[in-house]
Amino acid sequence: ISSGASAADIVAQNIQENKVMMFSKSYCPFCLKVKDLFKSLNVAYTTLELDLMENGPEIQEALVEKSGLRTVPNVFVNGEHLGGADKVFETQKNGELMPLINKSDHNYDYDMIVIGGGSGGLAASKEAANLGAKVAVCDFVTPTPKGTTWGLGGTCVNVGCIPKKLMHQAAILGHELKDSREYGWATPESVSHDWSKMVEGIQNHIGSLNWGYRVALRDKKINYLNAYATFTDPHTLKTVDRRGKEKIITADKFVLATGGRPRYPDIPGVKEHCITSDDIFSLPYPPGKTLLVGASYIALECAGFLAGLGYDTTVMVRSILLRGFDQQIAERIGTYMEQNGVKFIRGAVPTSVEQIEEGSPGKYKVTAKTTDGEEITDEYNTIVMAIGRDPCTGGIGLDTINVELAKSGKVVVNSAEQSSIPHIYAVGDIIEGGLELTPVAIQAGKLLARRLYGNGTLLTDYVNVPTTVFTPLEYGSCGLSEEVAIEKYGEDDIEVYHSNYIPLEHTVPHRPENECYAKLICVKSLNEKVVGFHVLGPNAGEITQGFSIGLKLNATKADFDNLIGIHPTTAEVFTTLGVTKRSGKDVNAQGC
Ligand code: FAD
Ligand code: NDP
């Protein structure tokens, strides 16, 4: 605004240039209230504090001329006069404020269409709707080769984190039932487990979550289409519901959040006779003797709870356990699982699956080849393929509208989750270089919506994301594995502090000692900054969640040492780690 501009020009220009323009006074409590409201709604607004401006009184006069309002705050939205504090709060109460602010300047059906109603898609759509955008969500589950299908909420809720953690809990309870005898409970020696009852309980819980998501979408006036979406041009989708009914819908912006589905190896008999994590959590009959193919999160977690529930369980490992994780801990997990009934076939991949007997479960012969070229066979009732997941990015028209995909099939995005087509974004499991974890998808969806429709500027931080593998002995980690830390900083610059530990709860039932393990990886030249946090033991997820904030805030080993522990807990071990790996000293825990 030029220095000679009149008060009327200043008013007019500010109203024109700023979506939400507020004429205010710095000491005015009503102005403060409106500012707080805008902040809580993530609304970007501009203010002129009239009491701090030389020509404040003239501007206030010009405002009376323009709006008839003498008092502050005086708020304008999208060039139109809204009013003072009372009017702002009344508009908000009626649910009209955000739509007014985010009034569309296009002729599409929606401001935003989200493809995929899973962790990332629901987060993005709900936040965008909160910010006043007109949103639709398309979610459609293609049945598995076995015909399994599920409701709204995506992988995590239906066939991932939620049923997995609950089955993990079922197995833990079995172990604790044994412990309970030493604590005086007259638990019978032989207790049985009812697979179908567990599945029913878990599926009922999932059903309530599916319903809750539908209600949440309805409450936020988000249009939910239970239909499969395909792009026909960069702003248009064709949706097809389960009855084959087609609909064409358009939007200004799109968020791809289609997630992934389990991969099957290209070997005979696999799709006819094997299941995946998409089927196991709703399996209507007990699985019996089970083979899990794969050696990462899914294979090991499923193997852990199946063995814990009493099933004869084998894991077929192609190369190493838990690629990408700290290998010392991965091997300790393997040892613990082996000691607790899981069998491992190392260095082998299946080559064919044949049916021997029909039934629920049936019986199947699995032939496999070892790395030495030897052929091995065995019979199983259930075979679970857990060899990784493919992104659902094929056959949805991304090629026709030129959205760039990586070799993996994942969407190439920049740090703002924007694809090669500027109005098309992607979040969650399908982004190249991302992390396949629910909270990551949620954070990315939420922050993206805030950047698009609010005053958000924050980008999702994909570094130091804590995670936990829910094997019988849980493994929580944040930051670098020892291997990667050495590769990055060099062996001489790394100091590893570690200790075995015995949870107090394990002492009375005489569980084997020193199975649990804590490890901090520090960089000497960075004042022993902690770059890797690893814990193997009960409730590792809970422990890791808390400590990971330390890594985000660049905690050093001295910070961990200065922290006073909570006694008696297992997490307190991290406040007293004194033995370096380099010293070779004994790390077995010595009493309390
Ligand atoms: P999803 O949740 O997969 O949602 C995508 C949705 O889009 C699906 O409903 C899909 O059917 C739908 N869709 C696909 N294509 C279309 C289309 N063209 N039209 C309409 N709809 C479409 N993460 C954790 O953080 N902790 C855990 O403990 C954990 N455990 C897991 C256990 C298992 C067995 C598995 C498989 C995963 C686990 N994960 C875990 C990972 C987590 O589930 C995923 O990272 C998360 O669900 C990804 O969310 P998303 O939004 O990217 O996709
Ligand atoms: P991953 O991609 O992590 O691992 C695939 C596993 O299968 C590896 O062990 C791999 O072995 C093996 N494999 C690959 N191809 C073959 C083959 N042809 N024959 C035999 N074995 C093979 O997949 P997951 O399915 O376990 O997990 C997918 C993602 O889901 C994870 O990365 C994770 O982000 C998320 N998830 C998170 C969980 C959590 O937070 N607790 C739980 C479960 C999943 P190799 O090492 O030799 O390549």
Automatic annotation (TrEMBL):
<protein>
    <recommendedName>
        <fullName>thioredoxin-disulfide reductase (NADPH)</fullName>
        <ecNumber>1.8.1.9</ecNumber>
    </recommendedName>
</protein>
<dbReference type="GO" id="GO:0004791">
    <property type="term" value="F:thioredoxin-disulfide reductase (NADPH) activity"/>
</dbReference>
<feature type="domain" description="Pyridine nucleotide-disulphide oxidoreductase dimerisation">
    <location>
        <begin position="465"/>
        <end position="576"/>
    </location>
</feature>
<dbReference type="Pfam" id="PF07992">
    <property type="entry name" value="Pyr_redox_2"/>
</dbReference>
<keyword id="KW-0274">FAD</keyword>
<keyword id="KW-0285">Flavoprotein</keyword>
<dbReference type="Pfam" id="PF02852">
    <property type="entry name" value="Pyr_redox_dim"/>
</dbReference>
<keyword id="KW-0249">Electron transport</keyword>
<comment type="function">
    <text>Has a glutathione-disulfide oxidoreductase activity in the presence of NADPH and glutathione reductase. Reduces low molecular weight disulfides and proteins.</text>
</comment>
<dbReference type="InterPro" id="IPR023753">
    <property type="entry name" value="FAD/NAD-binding_dom"/>
</dbReference>
<feature type="domain" description="FAD/NAD(P)-binding">
    <location>
        <begin position="110"/>
        <end position="445"/>
    </location>
</feature>
<dbReference type="InterPro" id="IPR011767">
    <property type="entry name" value="GLR_AS"/>
</dbReference>
<keyword id="KW-0521">NADP</keyword>
<dbReference type="GO" id="GO:0005829">
    <property type="term" value="C:cytosol"/>
</dbReference>
<dbReference type="InterPro" id="IPR006338">
    <property type="entry name" value="Thioredoxin/glutathione_Rdtase"/>
</dbReference>
<keyword id="KW-0712">Selenocysteine</keyword>
<dbReference type="GO" id="GO:0004362">
    <property type="term" value="F:glutathione-disulfide reductase (NADPH) activity"/>
</dbReference>
<keyword id="KW-0560">Oxidoreductase</keyword>
<dbReference type="InterPro" id="IPR002109">
    <property type="entry name" value="Glutaredoxin"/>
</dbReference>
<keyword id="KW-1015">Disulfide bond</keyword>
<dbReference type="GO" id="GO:0045454">
    <property type="term" value="P:cell redox homeostasis"/>
</dbReference>
<dbReference type="Pfam" id="PF00462">
    <property type="entry name" value="Glutaredoxin"/>
</dbReference>
<dbReference type="InterPro" id="IPR036188">
    <property type="entry name" value="FAD/NAD-bd_sf"/>
</dbReference>
<dbReference type="InterPro" id="IPR012999">
    <property type="entry name" value="Pyr_OxRdtase_I_AS"/>
</dbReference>
<dbReference type="GO" id="GO:0005739">
    <property type="term" value="C:mitochondrion"/>
</dbReference>
<dbReference type="GO" id="GO:0006749">
    <property type="term" value="P:glutathione metabolic process"/>
</dbReference>
<keyword id="KW-0813">Transport</keyword>
<keyword id="KW-0676">Redox-active center</keyword>
<dbReference type="InterPro" id="IPR036249">
    <property type="entry name" value="Thioredoxin-like_sf"/>
</dbReference>
<comment type="similarity">
    <text>Belongs to the class-I pyridine nucleotide-disulfide oxidoreductase family.</text>
</comment>
<comment type="function">
    <text>Thioredoxin system is a major player in glutathione metabolism, due to the demonstrated absence of a glutathione reductase. Functionally interacts with the Sod/Cat reactive oxidation species (ROS) defense system and thereby has a role in preadult development and life span. Lack of a glutathione reductase suggests antioxidant defense in Drosophila, and probably in related insects, differs fundamentally from that in other organisms.</text>
</comment>
<dbReference type="InterPro" id="IPR046952">
    <property type="entry name" value="GSHR/TRXR-like"/>
</dbReference>
<dbReference type="GO" id="GO:0034599">
    <property type="term" value="P:cellular response to oxidative stress"/>
</dbReference>
<dbReference type="InterPro" id="IPR016156">
    <property type="entry name" value="FAD/NAD-linked_Rdtase_dimer_sf"/>
</dbReference>
<dbReference type="InterPro" id="IPR004099">
    <property type="entry name" value="Pyr_nucl-diS_OxRdtase_dimer"/>
</dbReference>
<dbReference type="GO" id="GO:0050660">
    <property type="term" value="F:flavin adenine dinucleotide binding"/>
</dbReference>
<feature type="domain" description="Glutaredoxin">
    <location>
        <begin position="20"/>
        <end position="81"/>
    </location>
</feature>
<dbReference type="InterPro" id="IPR011899">
    <property type="entry name" value="Glutaredoxin_euk/vir"/>
</dbReference>
